Amino acid sequence: MVTHIRFFYFAIIHFLFLATIAVISTISSYEKSSSFVENDFTTGLTATKEGLQHSISIPLVKQYLSLSGIDAGYGFFAPNVASSYVLKITILDRKTRQEMVEHFSPPFRTKEGKNKYHTLLGSFQDRLTIIENERLKKKSVSFKESKKYGEYLDIYLKSIGRFYYNQYKPDKFLVHCTLFLYHYPSLNASVLEKKAPLLIKLLELDAKHITLGKN
Fold first, then answer.
1. Which of 46, 82, 188, 199 has the smallest C-beta neighbourhood within 10 Å, fewest atoms?
2. Can you tell me where the transmembrane regions are (predicted)?
């Protein structure tokens, strides 16, 4: 009986965490949408989101959300243990290969651009599968697990990197695109040993500058 009561309370707390993350995710998605307009109502929504984010920022709670997969959901009432990806754009000196500048988010001018960018990063779950299949020498069973699809995704990364050649001239700089995967430590390591999540490098691409020929 005591076990059932404990499980009931645990389920209630878990559901409240799910609801909190769902509300935060929904408000964040709305803020990034093209229909978002700043007014008293949206100001209240933003304040609500910030308050909820503060309430789940307690170290033990934050680690539980990460390890349970609750904070990786899409904004509805179900946990989704999805992988989180980070794209780093590195500007290097062409001669010395020294890192000069790092960028973790392209300077989008529209909310639509930001939405498409985050959707693109979500597609790299398939890229991870392709890398794993190549490591295990496993034959792909669908196009999204094939090497061709991996090359298709890599083109997107390179095109993002090539944008920076507008600011950093290709005769002096190189642009590299590096895709990272978040790795969360165990509960014991993260709480007791105070270890932070690590970034695992999946792949690094040289966004080679393309010189267009004259017609």
1. 188
2. 7-27
Using a 10 angstrom Cβ sphere, with 0-12 exposed, 13-18 middle and 19 or more buried, the burial of residue 86 is: middle
The gap from C-alpha 26 to its chain's centroid, in whole angstroms, comes to 17
**Residue 71 CA from chain centroid, whole number:** 12
> CA–CA separation, 87 vs 180, rounded Å?
6
Measured in residues, the chain has a length of 215
Can you give the residue ranges of every domain in the chain? 2-72, 85-206
Q: CA neighbours within 13 Å on the CB side: how many for 75?
A: 9
